[in-house]
């Protein structure tokens, strides 16, 4: 029903090219707050109207803006409410991810943005009640949403543009993921080594 409503909105307004952002950008913010429809719908609309590269780029920027608006609003107004909601969950799913936030910081956010494990609006809510600061959260949304948009772009391009060669898009995404994994492993190694050095210094 939501998909049909969005398509009907675009048909009635006859938005094409970059003008489609008049509709998709506010919808990206609504999606970031309520999560009532998949963000992939907006990515497909942007790609259909502006082409693969421009569609992915505008979708990425929209997702970053929406994620940071939701984070700021939730941290300012809804953190107490969401904490109570987490405490009422018997399965402990959100509590588990909250512990990962505290342990791995922005890397947990990047993983959750990349994989459709938890809705985007819930990710922003959980981050807002964690100890993550605004600037690291901003960088995590930049990297995490880039990974998410890139992945959706690979999937949607094979549907919308079946004749286009997507080997470069897939290969560059694999290289991007490998780079992220190497950075993560290196940062965790350095962090643990720094912790061991502190313990040894205290012991001495």
UniProtKB/TrEMBL annotation:
Keyword Transmembrane: yes
Key words, A-Z: Cell membrane, Membrane, Transmembrane, Transmembrane helix
Residue span(s) of domain VTT: 37-154
Any one GO CC term of the record: plasma membrane
Any Pfam family hit: VTT_dom
Subcellular location: Cell membrane
Family (UniProt): Belongs to the TVP38/TMEM64 family.
PANTHER family: GOLGI APPARATUS MEMBRANE PROTEIN TVP38-RELATED
Protein name in the entry: TVP38/TMEM64 family membrane protein
Record lineage: Bacteria, Bacillati, Bacillota, Bacilli, Bacillales
